[in-house]
Design brief:
With 487 residues, the protein is mainly alpha-helical. It has 20 helices and no strands. 81% of the residues lie in helices and 0% in strands.
C-alpha cells in the first residue's frame, strides 16, 4: 500500500505539471508560432496515429498487466513476456503492407481537400507504432511497480521537448515542416527511452514457446483492441474526419477548443483510480447495496466538482480566447458542445467500472461500436453543413446516446441508478450560477477578469452547494477546513 500511495502522489503531481506545460503548448505556442495550417496537420497526424495505436500494440499493454501476476514460475513469465513483445507484429506487418498497396484509395478523401498533407501521411503508422510500443514497455514496468518514470516521460519530458521545438520554430532555427517530422521523432525517442528503462527493470529472456493460457491471452487481447480503438476514436476521430470535408486549418481551431473543454474531465482521473478497484471488490463480494451507494456518491461528487470547472470554463471562455490569436475565436461554440459531452461523462460516476467488472463486460464493446457508428454517420452529415461546430455537435449527440444506453443498461440488469433528487438540485445550481455570471464582465485585462470572476463563481457555487448539502463528502471537507482556521 505504501508503494501505491507514494507513486499515486508522484503521478498526480507529474500529471498536473505536465498538463500545465501542455496548456502553454496547445493554447499559446502552437497558435502563435506554428500557424493554423501546420497546427491542423499536427492534430490530424497525432489523432490518426492514436487511433492506430491499439492495433499497433495488439492490446498487449492491458493483457500484460492482467495476466503477468498469474504466472507462478519464472519460465512461464519469460514465455509470456516474449510473446508480449512479438505479438504486435501480427498486426503491424500486414497493416504496413495493406497501407503500402492501398495508399491512394485510403488517402483520396483527405488529399482531395488538403493536398498539402500528402508528405506527412506516412508518419501516421510510424507514430502509431511508437505509441503502441511505448504503452507496452510502460505496462512492462507497471507490473514491476515502477510507474513514475513512464508517466514523467509522457507527461513532462515529451511536452518539454515539444515546447523547445516550438521555440525553435519561433527563432527560425527549424522550419514548420521540419517541426512535424521532429515531433514524430519525439515519439520515437519516448518509445526508445521507455524501452531502455523497461530493460533495466527487467531484462527480457526470449523463449519462443507459447504460454499455457494462450487462448485466453488472444481472446482478451482482441477484446482490448476493439475497446481501445473505440475509446480513442471517441477522443480523436473527429480530428481525422474534419480534414475529409474541411480545410485542415479548421483542425487547429477545433483542437484548441477541445483542449479547453477537456479540462472538465480532469476531476474524474484521480477519483476513478480509487473507485475502480473498490467497485470490483464490491461486485466480487456481491454487496449491491453498498455499490448502489457508491454509484450515487461518485456521480454527485463528480457532478459538483465537474460543474464548478465547467462553469469556470464556460463563463471565462470569451476572456480566454482574447489571450490567443483572434482567428481561433470561432471555436467557442465547440468548447460548449464538447464541454457538455465531457460533463455527461462525469455525472455517470463509476458506471463504466460497474459494466466492465461484471459478466456483462462484453456489452461495453457493443455499446462502443454503436457509439462509433453513430459518430461517423453524424460527422458525415453535420461537418459538411456546420464545419467544426458540426463535429462537436455530432460528438455531443453520440455521447448522449452512448451514455444514456449505459445508464439504462445498468438499471435494467442490476437495478442500479446514479441519479437522485440531489442531481436535479445540482443542475439547478449550475444553471443559476451560469445565468448570474454569463452576462457579467469586468473591464480589466482578460487574465484579471478570469481571476476575479473565477473567485466569485467559486464562492457563490460553493456556498449554494454547501447550504443545500448536495454532497455530504464535500461538506465534510469544508467543515474540516473551516475548523482548522476557526479559533
Amino acid at each position: 500500500m505504501g508503494i501505491v500511495i507514494n507513486q499515486s502522489i508522484k503521478n498526480t503531481i507529474i500529471t498536473y505539471f505536465g498538463f500545465g506545460i501542455g496548456t502553454i503548448n496547445a493554447l499559446f505556442l502552437y497558435t502563435i508560432f506554428l500557424g493554423k495550417m501546420h497546427y491542423g496537420i499536427v492534430a490530424f497526424v497525432l489523432s490518426a496515429a492514436n487511433i492506430m495505436m491499439p492495433l499497433m500494440a495488439f492490446g498487449v499493454q492491458n493483457t500484460l498487466i492482467r495476466f503477468y501476476s498469474k504466472y507462478n514460475s519464472d519460465a512461464e513469465r519469460e514465455k509470456f513476456l516474449s510473446l508480449m513483445l512479438l505479438l504486435p507484429l501480427i498486426l503491424i506487418l500486414p497493416t504496413i503492407v495493406f497501407l503500402y498497396f492501398f495508399y491512394p484509395q485510403i488517402t483520396f478523401f483527405i488529399l482531395k481537400e488538403n493536398p498539402n498533407v500528402a508528405q506527412f501521411l506516412w508518419l501516421i503508422p510510424i507514430v502509431g507504432i511508437f505509441m503502441g510500443y511505448f504503452e507496452i514497455f510502460y505496462a512492462w514496468v507497471k507490473v514491476h511497480f515502477q510507474s513514475v518514470f513512464g508517466n514523467f516521460l509522457s507527461e513532462v519530458v515529451t511536452r518539454v521537448i515539444i515546447l523547445f521545438l516550438l521555440f525553435s520554430v519561433s527563432q527560425n532555427w527549424i522550419q514548420k515542416d521540419t517541426f512535424i517530422y521532429s515531433l514524430s521523432a519525439v515519439y520515437g525517442f519516448q518509445c526508445f527511452a521507455m524501452m531502455v528503462f523497461a530493460i533495466r527493470v527487467k531484462m527480457p529472456v526470449f523463449k519462443f514457446q507459447l504460454p499455457i493460457n494462450i487462448k485466453e491471452i488472444f481472446s482478451y487481447s482482441f477484446f482490448i483492441i476493439a475497446t481501445g480503438t473505440v475509446s480513442v476514436m471517441l477522443i480523436d476521430f473527429d480530428k481525422v474526419m474534419i480534414p475529409a470535408y474541411q480545410n485542415i486549418s479548421n483542425n487547429a481551431f477545433y483542437s484548441v477548443a477541445v483542449f479547453i473543454a477537456m479540462v472538465i474531465a480532469v476531476p474524474s482521473r484521480a477519483m476513478m483510480q480509487i473507485i475502480y478497484p473498490v467497485t470490483a471488490q464490491l461486485l466480487n463480494e456481491n454487496k449491491l447495496e453498498e455499490l448502489d451507494a457508491l454509484y450515487k456518491k461518485s456521480a454527485i461528487n463528480l457532478q459538483v466538482f465537474g460543474g464548478l470547472i465547467m462553469l469556470g470554463i464556460f463563463l471565462n471562455c470569451t476572456e480566454l480566447y482574447q489571450l490567443i490569436p483572434q482567428e481561433y475565436s470561432g471555436g467557442i461554440a465547440v468548447v460548449f458542445l464538447i464541454g457538455l459531452s465531457k460533463f455527461y461523462d462525469l455525472i455517470l460516476g463509476n458506471n463504466a467500472a460497474i459494466i466492465l467488472n461484471t459478466k456483462y463486460y462484453r456489452w461495453f464493446l457493443f455499446f462502443g461500436i454503436v457509439l462509433v457508428i453513430s459518430m461517423i454517420v453524424l460527422y458525415m452529415i453535420l461537418i459538411p453543413i456546420y464545419g467544426i461546430v458540426g463535429a462537436a455537435l455530432a460528438t455531443l449527440i453520440a455521447v448522449i446516446i452512448y451514455n444514456t444506453i449505459k445508464v439504462l443498461f445498468v438499471f435494467w440488469k442490476m437495478n442500479l441508478f446514479p441519479f437522485t433528487i440531489k442531481t436535479v438540485y445540482s443542475f439547478v445550481i449550475i444553471t443559476l450560477v451560469f445565468l448570474m455570471f454569463y452576462f457579467w464582465d469586468f473591464t480589466f485585462h482578460p487574465i484579471l477578469n478570469i481571476v476575479f470572476k473565477s473567485i466569485l463563481i467559486t464562492i457563490v457555487y460553493g456556498l449554494l452547494n454547501y447550504k443545500l448539502k448536495i454532497s455530504i463528502e464535500m461538506n465534510e471537507i469544508f467543515d474540516k477546513l473551516k475548523s482548522k482556521f476557526t479559533l
